[in-house]
Design a protein that fits this description.
The structure is a single chain. The chain is α/β, with parallel strands linked by helices. The protein is built from 13 helices and 15 strands. The chain has a five-stranded mixed beta sheet with strand order 6-5-4-7-10, sandwiched between helices. It has a five-stranded mixed beta sheet with strand order 13-12-11-14-15, sandwiched between helices. Strands 1-3-2 form a three-stranded antiparallel beta sheet. Helix 2 crosses helix 3, helix 4 packs parallel to helix 5 and helix 6 crosses helix 13. The chain starts with 16 loop residues before the first helix and ends in an 8-residue tail after the last helix.
Length: 405
């Protein structure tokens, strides 16, 4: 009689697969970051530097080598044969697009977040999607051609818009700054126009994401980004994750009423923040009171930088109104950083001072005692940088791994 040995394998129920995937991605990023910072290393040295086990490092290296993102070679270390690992050049890129009321900016990044090309065009107020999307396609073709980048190298394109977007489809659900774009399914339209994968997000949200990822506010636990432009919006970042609602509508601080029975807003309410603070209101006030000068946003910035008393008083008063709406946000969140951006930021010191003075007066002192209030240090490219970062994150979520020398 033949006796057969039966091997029994107990399979434990799988749990927290999302957490396991996140842990794996974190470990991969640790290995890549170590190679980027320290150069070629043996697998044993990588294990010591990252604190990971040699088996985990070996598994990650095999995965990265299969996808062509690292190269390995035999070497002798401490008299023993070892495997040396080095980053392979990564030719892949992402593109960011910031579409505003009167401009469209395009920025190219490589996988290491280094800019390799930028374009800016002016748009007519009230521009239509059927005009702007073909122009975006032309800009992308021109950017790639100018910098000798093949379209096949583009992983993804991130797009920033001054509108609220339906989270799944990218359909515009609210577009007060771009009223002609309301109801348009931009996700599909942009993919068709650009010929590359596309991710979309509100511009204020991407401003928050950009400041978390770079500059003096990088890594902030809780960050509020306030964009003052044709409209006024807020983006919220918590450890680099954006706050999003199921409706796609968030951060509409511009439509918080701050004056009883004030000026009629296009949203239908009276006394909304945007009726006092937007660039349209500020430029309009200056054109009425000082018609001898040709006023637009750049002229307002220049006058503020030159110390024009009237302009800086207008900006300070606008900041006071902004603080009225922002104080409850600070009471609710007690943020680490509040960053003020938008086209006025280059000359916006008075705007910032008015905002901070009112927030300090109106909010509980304990909620803002550690808050850093500042003008953006990313200039007018914050939103398009956020669009590039969004594209990189989308590639990582899809299972890709980005490395660069």
């Amino acid at each position: 009689m033949t006796t057969m040995a039966v091997r029994t394998r107990v399979v434990a129920p799988q749990r927290d697969t999302g957490s396991q995937k996140a842990l794996r991605e974190r470990n991969i990023r640790m290995v890549v970051a170590t190679l980027r910072a320290q150069g070629p290393r043996t697998q044993a040295a990588l294990a010591r530097a990252t604190g990971l086990s040699t088996g985990t490092v070996s598994s990650i290296v095999r995965e990265l080598e299969t996808t062509g993102l690292v190269a390995t070679a035999s070497t002798i270390s401490s008299g023993r044969r070892s495997v040396e690992v080095r980053l392979a050049p990564d030719p892949r890129v992402v593109v960011g697009v910031d579409i505003g009321r009167t401009h469209m900016r395009m920025l190219g990044w490589d996988a290491g977040r280094r800019a390799w090309g930028e374009q800016l065009v002016q748009l007519a107020p009230g521009h239509e999607p059927f005009e702007t999307l073909p122009l975006a396609a032309e800009m992308l073709d021109g950017l790639l051609h100018e910098h000798h980048v093949d379209r096949s190298r583009v992983l993804c394109c991130g797009v920033a818009l001054p509108a609220s977007l339906e989270p799944v489809t990218g359909r515009v659900v609210q577009a007060s700054v771009l009223p002609n774009w309301a109801g348009v399914d931009l996700g599909e339209a942009l993919r068709d126009a650009l010929g590359v994968p596309v991710v979309l997000e509100n511009d204020a949200n991407l401003g928050a994401l950009a400041h978390y990822g770079a500059g003096q506010h990088a890594g902030a636990h809780s960050l509020v980004y306030v964009k003052v432009a044709t409209g006024v919006g807020v983006g919220l970042s918590f450890d680099g994750s954006l706050y999003r609602s199921t409706t796609g509508i968030t951060g509409e601080i511009g439509h918080v009423p701050v004056v009883d029975n004030g000026e009629l807003c296009y949203c239908g309410n009276r006394g909304c923040l945007e009726t006092l603070v937007s660039t349209r209101r500020l430029v309009g006030d200056l054109r009425r009171t000082r018609p001898e000068r040709t006023w637009d946003v750049p002229e307002v910035v220049r006058a503020a930088q030159d110390g024009d008393v009237m302009v800086n008083r207008l900006l300070y008063d606008a900041g006071v109104a902004l603080g009225l709406a922002l104080a409850p946000v600070c009471n609710l969140l007690s943020p680490d950083d509040v960053v003020l951006g938008g086209p006025l930021a280059a000359g916006g010191q008075a705007l910032l001072e008015g905002m901070v003075a009112t927030v300090r007066q109106r909010a509980l002192p304990a909620t803002t005692g550690r808050t850093d209030f500042a003008l953006t240090d990313l200039g007018e490219t914050a939103e398009v940088q956020g669009a590039c970062l969004l594209a990189l994150q989308a590639s990582l979520r899809s299972g890709d791994v980005l490395v660069s020398n």
